[in-house]
Amino acid sequence: MASPELNVIVYGLGAIGGTYAFFLSRSQSVSLSVIARSNYDAVKKNGMKMQSLGLGKHSFQAKHVFKSAAEAGEKLSYDYVICAHKALNQDAAINDIKSLISPQTIIVIAQNGVGNEDPFRVRYPENSIVSCAIWIGADQPRPGEFVTRNREHTDLGLFPNPEIDAALERSRVETFAALLKEGGLSVSLEENIQIRKWEKVVCNILWNPISAITQQNMGVPFLESSEEAEAFGKALMLDVIAVARKSGVPLDDSLADKYIAFTKSLGSFQPSMLHDLKAGMPLEIDVIIGAPMQKARQLGMEVPSLRAVYAPVSALNGKLTILGA
Amino acid sequence: MASPELNVIVYGLGAIGGTYAFFLSRSQSVSLSVIARSNYDAVKKNGMKMQSLGLGKHSFQAKHVFKSAAEAGEKLSYDYVICAHKALNQDAAINDIKSLISPQTIIVIAQNGVGNEDPFRVRYPENSIVSCAIWIGADQPRPGEFVTRNREHTDLGLFPNPEIDAALERSRVETFAALLKEGGLSVSLEENIQIRKWEKVVCNILWNPISAITQQNMGVPFLESSEEAEAFGKALMLDVIAVARKSGVPLDDSLADKYIAFTKSLGSFQPSMLHDLKAGMPLEIDVIIGAPMQKARQLGMEVPSLRAVYAPVSALNGKLTILGA
């Protein structure tokens, strides 16, 4: 790319934020900043390490490592702000990034779940929003060290802003896709990113809440645990697929069988929500289970299987939040 | 009562077995034997203690304390065998009591749940079976020491045996009710005990599996944990009520609201399944959740909320069983 350097900042340097930072650091067109919080000292001192399944081992560093959004906002203005924090305290995070946002800034939401664009749009109505479905299993075994466990791929697309010229929005999302591709990440630019985001939630709804309430790995350990396990998992996905469809996102029921087969093929694995539960950390309920549940409520739909995981997982999380307080 | 002494034996001297032993020990018409297993040494040496909410503190002892059913069967023959063991390994227990059973022996099933009579009937087709709905919250804080936490009440009735003269069966169940009453227990002799047993399962289905999957006390802590909690609890009970009704047990849907209100009135409490889960003990799934689930399957019914607790609790239990092996 012959375009001038773009200021890109990653907010939330967890496993996904770190992986995005790695790919962006490899693009000649990017001047990269990161906001590190719990891992600031390690990243500032030693830089970052990446063990990419596709690209091997690398050391890299951002041009600027900041401790906070406030500090980052004083230093520079940004073309792209990648929000890769966990979707837990969205309101606080959305308020926290205000110093990074000018009317021209493009906000990239690199999070699990659905419905996470709305509060960003409400708070920053003038901005373009790019949303992602991230198909990357990643960990941060030590501060600033990132490891991916599967092929690194991202689907992305616009959360269209009717106040902005469509061609301009289009060029903004294409530029962002190009930056990631230049860094070596597999990227699909989607006409309707909501399809891919809801597809991922259908898969997450099978993996995350069930592993939390069974305190057990997902895959074969659950799916073969009783004569009703697979039927329950399928019914749960079909509830979410129905909500998606009624919300205008055209998913097919066959997705449920596809994900059952895929999940079985993985054997036994620990979904992120089980990991968080074991660590006594709050669970990413809102965007994975809460948003479909809320949509169902708004649409007056009966979703007994979805409700049957929403209620206990919320109770589990409430207990963790109380314990953590 | 002027009737001759009846040989009555309690098999399974846990909290419920001990409470039954206490009331039977106070009947002049009973010659009481007990089969103690884990608490044999304490009971043999020190006798038993009862702290009854209705009748205060008492020490008592059975005429015979046995270590095993085999030993008990060599010594005496029995008019009534009270099966008060946990409904976990039913087949093993049903086989174990064979030395206690003659064709005249009346089998009393003093267990939670529904469907527990069938395997006894298959194994002992000549015998009368009395079944109970036990509304007693009891503990055994130390071996041989029993404490009740609420008014001690039992509903009981026949599991009718078409091979036996109805008047004879009637006299057998009336005699057993009279023995317990003579000892001071509040007893209702029911025309159709299945109604009361299924009612208790409707209540148990709200309390036990939800407390297991939320790892949290039942009552207000769950029912007010999210905007869907109460609706989920109610839907779960309505599923079981529908199964009962289709199985020929006439329960009314209003039971669900009644138990929601009752459960709220109790504040916060730990159901037995949560207690067992925390202790790493196997969960009493089969008769509380498994039997309604199996009935639903046989009847071709859709019970999404029931299935949504059956599957994860079975998975939880499988994990415990594996850990315990």
Automatic annotation (TrEMBL), chains A, B:
Keywords: Membrane, NADP, Oxidoreductase, Transmembrane, Transmembrane helix. It catalyses: (R)-pantoate + NADP(+) = 2-dehydropantoate + NADPH + H(+). GO terms for biological process: pantothenate biosynthetic process. Residues 192-315 form the Ketopantoate reductase C-terminal domain. One of its GO terms (molecular function) is 2-dehydropantoate 2-reductase activity. The keyword Transmembrane applies. InterPro entries: 6-PGluconate_DH-like_C_sf, 6PGD_dom2, ApbA, KPA_reductase, KPR-Related, KPR_N, NAD(P)-bd_dom_sf. Catalyzes the NADPH-dependent reduction of ketopantoate into pantoic acid. This is 2-dehydropantoate 2-reductase. It comes from Oidiodendron maius (strain Zn).
